[in-house]
Amino acid sequence: DAGVTQSPTHLIKTRGQQVTLRCSPKSGHDTVSWYQQALGQGPQFIFQYYEEEERQRGNFPDRFSGHQFPNYSSELNVNALLLGDSALYLCASARTGAHGYTFGSGTRLTVV
Amino acid sequence: EDQVTQSPEALRLQEGESSSLNCSYTVSGLRGLFWYRQDPGKGPEFLFTLYSAGEEKEKERLKATLTKKESFLHITAPKPEDSATYLCAVQAEGNKLVFGAGTILRVKS
Protein backbone atom coordinates (compact mmCIF):
# COMPACT_ATOMS: atom_id res chain seq x y z
CA ASP A 1 0.00 0.00 0.00
CA ALA A 2 1.66 3.20 -1.19
CA GLY A 3 1.75 5.99 1.32
CA VAL A 4 1.79 9.67 0.43
CA THR A 5 3.80 10.32 -2.73
CA GLN A 6 5.38 13.69 -3.47
CA SER A 7 7.19 14.92 -6.56
CA PRO A 8 9.75 16.09 -7.32
CA THR A 9 12.03 15.16 -4.40
CA HIS A 10 14.39 18.05 -4.99
CA LEU A 11 14.07 21.29 -6.92
CA ILE A 12 16.25 24.33 -7.50
CA LYS A 13 14.61 27.56 -8.67
CA THR A 14 15.71 31.14 -9.23
CA ARG A 15 14.27 34.02 -7.23
CA GLY A 16 11.15 35.40 -8.94
CA GLN A 17 10.24 32.14 -10.66
CA GLN A 18 7.16 30.02 -10.07
CA VAL A 19 7.06 26.41 -8.87
CA THR A 20 4.48 23.60 -8.71
CA LEU A 21 4.78 20.71 -6.27
CA ARG A 22 2.63 17.59 -6.48
CA CYS A 23 1.15 15.18 -3.98
CA SER A 24 -0.75 11.89 -4.24
CA PRO A 25 -2.49 11.00 -0.96
CA LYS A 26 -2.49 7.61 0.70
CA SER A 27 -5.11 5.22 -0.67
CA GLY A 28 -8.46 5.85 1.05
CA HIS A 29 -7.55 9.38 2.13
CA ASP A 30 -9.51 12.36 0.80
CA THR A 31 -8.07 15.33 2.70
CA VAL A 32 -4.71 16.86 1.82
CA SER A 33 -2.71 19.42 3.80
CA TRP A 34 0.51 21.19 2.92
CA TYR A 35 3.23 22.23 5.35
CA GLN A 36 6.45 24.21 5.02
CA GLN A 37 9.41 23.12 7.16
CA ALA A 38 12.41 25.44 7.35
CA LEU A 39 15.72 24.00 8.45
CA GLY A 40 15.76 23.32 12.19
CA GLN A 41 12.06 24.20 12.61
CA GLY A 42 8.84 22.29 12.94
CA PRO A 43 6.41 22.14 9.99
CA GLN A 44 4.18 25.19 9.49
CA PHE A 45 0.64 24.72 8.16
CA ILE A 46 0.03 26.29 4.74
CA PHE A 47 -3.49 25.11 3.82
CA GLN A 48 -5.81 22.14 3.61
CA TYR A 49 -7.97 20.85 0.76
CA TYR A 50 -11.08 18.73 0.92
CA GLU A 51 -13.63 18.13 -1.83
CA GLU A 52 -11.48 20.21 -4.17
CA GLU A 53 -11.82 23.34 -2.03
CA GLU A 54 -9.44 25.13 0.31
CA ARG A 55 -10.94 24.58 3.76
CA GLN A 56 -8.38 26.16 6.07
CA ARG A 57 -5.36 28.38 5.57
CA GLY A 58 -2.35 29.29 7.69
CA ASN A 59 -0.42 32.57 7.76
CA PHE A 60 1.02 32.41 4.28
CA PRO A 61 0.76 35.08 1.57
CA ASP A 62 -1.37 34.76 -1.55
CA ARG A 63 1.76 33.76 -3.48
CA PHE A 64 1.01 30.31 -2.10
CA SER A 65 -1.95 28.66 -3.79
CA GLY A 66 -3.16 25.16 -4.27
CA HIS A 67 -5.52 22.84 -6.00
CA GLN A 68 -7.12 19.48 -5.35
CA PHE A 69 -8.23 17.22 -8.18
CA PRO A 70 -11.19 14.81 -8.29
CA ASN A 71 -8.84 11.87 -7.58
CA TYR A 72 -7.82 13.70 -4.34
CA SER A 73 -4.29 14.47 -5.53
CA SER A 74 -3.09 17.99 -4.94
CA GLU A 75 -0.72 20.68 -6.15
CA LEU A 76 1.01 23.48 -4.31
CA ASN A 77 1.95 26.52 -6.38
CA VAL A 78 4.28 29.26 -5.24
CA ASN A 79 4.68 32.42 -7.33
CA ALA A 80 7.41 35.08 -7.28
CA LEU A 81 9.78 32.89 -5.30
CA LEU A 82 11.85 34.47 -2.54
CA LEU A 83 15.06 33.17 -1.00
CA GLY A 84 13.09 32.64 2.21
CA ASP A 85 10.82 30.13 0.46
CA SER A 86 13.67 27.62 0.54
CA ALA A 87 12.39 24.76 2.71
CA LEU A 88 11.11 21.19 2.81
CA TYR A 89 7.50 21.16 1.63
CA LEU A 90 5.47 18.35 3.15
CA CYS A 91 2.14 16.94 2.06
CA ALA A 92 -0.03 15.14 4.59
CA SER A 93 -3.20 13.20 3.91
CA ALA A 94 -6.02 11.91 6.09
CA ARG A 95 -9.40 10.27 5.84
CA THR A 96 -12.21 12.67 6.71
CA GLY A 97 -13.44 12.12 10.24
CA ALA A 98 -10.39 10.16 11.29
CA HIS A 99 -7.63 11.58 13.43
CA GLY A 100 -4.05 11.27 12.31
CA TYR A 101 -2.17 12.37 9.25
CA THR A 102 0.26 10.46 7.04
CA PHE A 103 3.12 12.56 5.71
CA GLY A 104 5.06 12.21 2.50
CA SER A 105 8.85 12.46 2.32
CA GLY A 106 8.61 16.02 1.08
CA THR A 107 10.01 18.16 -1.71
CA ARG A 108 13.23 20.04 -0.92
CA LEU A 109 12.96 23.44 -2.63
CA THR A 110 16.04 25.61 -2.92
CA VAL A 111 15.66 29.18 -4.20
CA VAL A 112 18.87 30.80 -5.46
CA GLU B 1 -2.88 31.67 19.74
CA ASP B 2 -2.16 27.94 19.68
CA GLN B 3 1.43 27.22 20.66
CA VAL B 4 3.67 24.20 21.20
CA THR B 5 7.06 24.33 22.95
CA GLN B 6 9.41 21.37 23.06
CA SER B 7 12.36 20.85 25.36
CA PRO B 8 15.20 20.21 25.35
CA GLU B 9 16.19 21.35 21.86
CA ALA B 10 18.79 18.59 21.70
CA LEU B 11 19.56 15.57 23.85
CA ARG B 12 22.55 13.25 23.80
CA LEU B 13 22.21 9.88 25.51
CA GLN B 14 24.35 6.84 25.91
CA GLU B 15 22.80 3.58 24.73
CA GLY B 16 20.61 2.28 27.56
CA GLU B 17 20.32 5.67 29.31
CA SER B 18 16.60 6.40 29.73
CA SER B 19 15.21 9.95 29.52
CA SER B 20 12.14 12.04 28.69
CA LEU B 21 11.24 14.69 26.14
CA ASN B 22 8.77 17.42 27.02
CA CYS B 23 6.02 19.08 24.98
CA SER B 24 4.15 22.01 26.53
CA TYR B 25 1.10 23.36 24.74
CA THR B 26 -1.57 26.02 24.82
CA VAL B 27 -4.53 25.43 22.56
CA SER B 28 -8.19 26.30 22.49
CA GLY B 29 -10.07 23.06 22.25
CA LEU B 30 -7.53 20.25 22.02
CA ARG B 31 -8.66 17.67 19.51
CA GLY B 32 -5.55 15.52 19.80
CA LEU B 33 -1.84 15.60 20.58
CA PHE B 34 0.50 13.84 18.19
CA TRP B 35 4.07 12.60 18.42
CA TYR B 36 6.07 12.09 15.23
CA ARG B 37 9.59 10.89 14.51
CA GLN B 38 11.52 12.54 11.67
CA ASP B 39 14.75 11.27 10.16
CA PRO B 40 17.00 13.69 8.22
CA GLY B 41 15.55 14.60 4.81
CA LYS B 42 12.39 12.57 5.42
CA GLY B 43 8.80 13.36 6.33
CA PRO B 44 7.46 12.91 9.87
CA GLU B 45 6.54 9.33 10.81
CA PHE B 46 3.52 8.91 13.07
CA LEU B 47 4.14 7.50 16.55
CA PHE B 48 1.20 8.26 18.87
CA THR B 49 -2.05 10.20 19.26
CA LEU B 50 -3.30 11.19 22.71
CA TYR B 51 -6.74 12.70 23.28
CA SER B 52 -7.32 13.30 26.97
CA ALA B 53 -5.40 14.00 30.17
CA GLY B 54 -4.22 10.83 31.85
CA GLU B 55 -3.98 8.87 28.63
CA GLU B 56 -0.81 6.82 27.98
CA LYS B 57 0.40 4.90 24.93
CA GLU B 58 3.40 2.65 24.42
CA LYS B 59 5.34 1.33 21.46
CA GLU B 60 8.54 -0.63 21.94
CA ARG B 61 10.93 1.62 23.92
CA LEU B 62 8.65 4.68 23.70
CA LYS B 63 5.85 5.74 26.03
CA ALA B 64 3.79 8.91 25.62
CA THR B 65 1.75 10.54 28.38
CA LEU B 66 -0.59 13.53 28.45
CA THR B 67 -1.68 16.09 31.05
CA LYS B 68 -3.80 19.20 30.58
CA LYS B 69 -0.76 21.33 29.82
CA GLU B 70 1.98 19.03 28.57
CA SER B 71 2.98 15.70 27.16
CA PHE B 72 6.05 13.58 27.77
CA LEU B 73 7.75 11.09 25.51
CA HIS B 74 9.66 8.65 27.68
CA ILE B 75 12.46 6.66 26.05
CA THR B 76 13.52 3.54 27.94
CA ALA B 77 16.93 1.97 27.28
CA PRO B 78 17.39 3.76 23.94
CA LYS B 79 19.40 2.32 21.06
CA PRO B 80 21.38 4.20 18.37
CA GLU B 81 18.54 3.58 15.89
CA ASP B 82 16.28 5.75 18.07
CA SER B 83 18.35 8.76 17.01
CA ALA B 84 16.03 11.20 15.18
CA THR B 85 14.12 14.44 15.65
CA TYR B 86 10.96 13.97 17.68
CA LEU B 87 8.12 16.35 16.86
CA CYS B 88 5.07 17.14 18.97
CA ALA B 89 1.93 18.63 17.41
CA VAL B 90 -1.55 19.58 18.57
CA GLN B 91 -4.66 19.42 16.45
CA ALA B 92 -6.52 22.63 17.03
CA GLU B 93 -9.55 24.29 15.50
CA GLY B 94 -10.27 22.93 12.08
CA ASN B 95 -7.88 20.18 11.22
CA LYS B 96 -4.52 21.89 11.10
CA LEU B 97 -1.60 20.61 13.15
CA VAL B 98 0.49 23.08 15.14
CA PHE B 99 4.01 21.73 15.60
CA GLY B 100 6.78 22.43 18.04
CA ALA B 101 10.35 22.91 16.81
CA GLY B 102 11.29 19.38 17.81
CA THR B 103 13.89 17.68 19.99
CA ILE B 104 16.98 16.27 18.27
CA LEU B 105 17.91 12.99 19.97
CA ARG B 106 21.33 11.38 19.54
CA VAL B 107 22.00 7.98 21.10
CA LYS B 108 25.61 6.84 21.14
CA SER B 109 26.71 3.23 21.52
Strand runs of chain B, count: 11
Helix count of chain A?
Answer: 0
Chain-averaged pLDDT of chain A: 95
Helix-strand sequence of chain A: EEEEEEEEEEE
Assembly type of the chains comes to heterodimer
The radius of gyration over CA of chain B amounts to: 13 Å
Helical stretch tally of chain B: 0
* Helix content percent band of chain B: under 10%
Tell me about the largest β-sheet of chain A.
7 strands, mixed
**Spatial gap, N to C terminus of chain B:** 41 Å
Short description:
With 112 residues, chain A is mostly beta strands. Helix content of chain A is 0%, strand content 51%.
Describe the SSE topology:
The complex is a heterodimer of chains A (112) and B (109).
Chain A: E1 5-7, E2 10-13, E3 19-24, E4 31-37, E5 44-50, E6 53-57, E7 64-68, E8 74-78, E9 87-94, E10 102-103, E11 107-111
Parallel strand pairs in A: 2-11
Antiparallel strand pairs in A: 1-3, 3-8, 4-5, 4-9, 5-6, 7-8, 9-10, 9-11
Chain B: E1 3-7, E2 10-14, E3 19-26, E4 32-38, E5 45-50, E6 56-59, E7 62-66, E8 70-75, E9 84-91, E10 97-99, E11 103-108
Parallel strand pairs in B: 2-11
Antiparallel strand pairs in B: 1-3, 3-8, 4-5, 4-9, 6-7, 7-8, 9-10, 9-11
Describe the structure.
The complex is a heterodimer of chains A (112) and B (109). Chain A is mostly beta strands. Helices cover 0% and strands 51% of the residues of chain A. Chain A has no helices and eleven strands. In chain A, strands 2, 4, 5, 6, 9, 10 and 11 form a seven-stranded mixed sheet that branches. Chain A is globular, with a radius of gyration of 13 Å. The mean pLDDT of chain A is 95. With 109 residues, chain B is mainly beta. Helix content of chain B is 0%, strand content 58%. Chain B has no helices and eleven strands. In chain B, strands 2, 4, 5, 9, 10 and 11 form a six-stranded mixed sheet that branches. Chain B has a five-stranded antiparallel sheet with strand order 1-3-8-7-6, with no helix packed on it. The mean pLDDT of chain B is 95. At the A-B interface, strand 4, strand 5, strand 9 and strand 10 of A face strand 4, strand 5, strand 9 and strand 10 of B.
